[in-house]
Design goal:
Layout: H1 3-13, H2 25-35, E1 40-46, E2 52-59, E3 63-69, H3 77-89, H4 94-102, E4 103-108, H5 113-118, H6 139-151, E5 155-161, E6 166-168, E7 177-180, H7 192-209, E8 216-218, H8 228-234, E9 239-244, H9 254-273, E10 290-292, E11 294-302, E12 311-322, E13 325-336, E14 342-348, E15 354-355, E16 370-373, E17 376-379
Parallel strand pairs: 3-4, 3-5, 5-9, 7-8, 11-14
Antiparallel strand pairs: 1-2, 2-4, 6-10, 7-9, 11-12, 12-13, 15-16, 16-17
The structure holds zinc ion (ZN).
Zinc ion is lined by residues 72, 75, 160.
């Protein structure tokens, strides 16, 4: 699809009621009500804290695609993109009709509503649902498994969000979007099944490269059968992990939301129009692997004591839910050799001493919006978001 068309469709169909990072069940409830007038919305079970978990089903075609978002409660970007794409798919755009004639799409928009409400990765029992695919100790894991078995999808989309610490490869490129076609055995064999997932990822990557060159990564594919993607892949369903990541200054993840929307759309359009044999998987192998090489903010060329060595002060934002908003609190993560890591924002201390606002030595773990550099107060707060 033409890039201009994709951008236009996003702007036209973006769900304006969802924005920012904190998205929970009460936010999507009115949207589900509205959707129920146009397609099938079902309650498929309840979370630990008795919240409804829904599926949305649309289309009538033979190719079945199952998607789930917010398995990790604090990873809300893909949920925003899900409602954007639903608005598009239920409109009278030509592309939507073509997809829904060929595909049946089932979406769990929020698998972990308790985690979403608390803004945590884990569910209400403090379990990471993406490590519970075999033991199935949690109701949310059982629901997803039951959904998979009943629907028998040809493709699975496992929708997540990643932290700001990842680079796409080891150069100075933030991993704005990452993917994975998970392994299905210890040897990470590139099976036909994985090739199909890789082929679809290659198509999405080609589109993203036009806009965010070198900012797409793949996760390492070491096999972990406790992860949902690996489990579904072992059952020979091509499964794609999506990770909405960081774009410069996009802490609200509104920019990357558009890239996820586009990726969903180009992949659905591709699956609708092609047999997806896996033959065209090779470009996937050229996508660089995600590396943990970024931090939010680094004060370079700094000292933490008058006669101390020159070093970098590495700062990472702590996402805290305060009231009804996610707040980003700067925390001193560590002191490192100079230029050991990349940063989304940099401050040059020009060999000056950095201290707390009370002119005390700063320590690892220190949290404050301000520090003192020589006699000036320097703000560590997000500059834009
Ligand atoms: Zn996740």
């Amino acid at each position: 699809m033409e890039l201009e068309t994709l951008k236009l469709l996003f702007n036209k169909h973006k769900e304006v009621l969802l924005f920012n990072r904190y998205i929970h069940a009460e936010d999507i409830a009115p949207l589900l009500q509205k959707l129920a007038l146009k397609c099938k919305v079902s309650v498929i079970g309840k979370s630990v804290l008795d919240k409804n978990i829904h599926t949305i089903t649309l289309g009538s075609g033979p190719k079945k695609i199952l998607m789930w978002s917010q398995m990790h409660g604090n990873e809300s970007t893909t949920t925003k993109a899900i409602f954007d794409i639903l608005n598009l798919l239920l409109s009278d755009e030509e592309v939507s009709e073509a997809i829904l004639k060929t595909c049946t799409i089932q979406i769990i928009p929020m698998l972990n509503p308790d985690g979403a409400k608390a803004y945590t990765r884990v569910n209400a029992n403090q379990v990471d649902l993406n490590r519970d695919a075999q033991d199935l100790t949690q109701p949310e894991s059982v629901i997803l498994k039951a959904c998979f078995e009943a629907f028998k999808p040809h493709f699975c989309y496992n929708l997540h969000g990643q932290r700001t610490i990842f680079g796409a490869g080891d150069a100075n490129n933030s991993a704005t979007v990452s993917f994975l076609a998970p392994a299905q055995d210890e040897a990470c064999t590139i099976t036909n099944n994985r090739k199909r997932a890789m082929e679809v990822i290659a198509v999405m990557n080609a589109n993203l490269q036009l806009q965010i060159p070198n900012q797409v990564g793949v996760y390492d594919d070491s096999f972990n059968i406790n992860c949902v993607g690996d489990t579904f892949q072992t059952q020979n369903t091509p499964t794609i992990l999506f990770e909405a990541g960081h774009y410069k200054d996009d802490y609200t993840r509104e920019k990357v939301r558009a890239y996820i929307f586009q990726s969903l759309l180009v992949s659905l359009d591709y699956i609708a129009k092609n047999a997806v044999s896996g033959e065209a998987y090779l470009p996937y192998l050229d996508i660089p692997e995600n590396q943990k090489c970024f931090y939010d903010l680094i004060i370079r060329n700094a000292r933490v004591a008058q006669d101390g060595d020159l070093l970098d002060i590495v700062i990472q934002y702590q996402e805290r839910l305060i009231g009804d908003a996610v707040v980003f609190i700067p925390k001193i993560e560590k002191f490192t050799r100079r230029n050991e890591f990349f940063a989304h924002r940099e401050i040059d201390a020009k060999e000056g001493v950095v201290e707390t606002v009370k002119k005390e030595a700063i320590t690892i773990g220190y949290e404050n919006d301000l520090v003192k550099l020589r006699n000036d107060e320097i703000s560590l707060k997000l500059t834009k978001s």
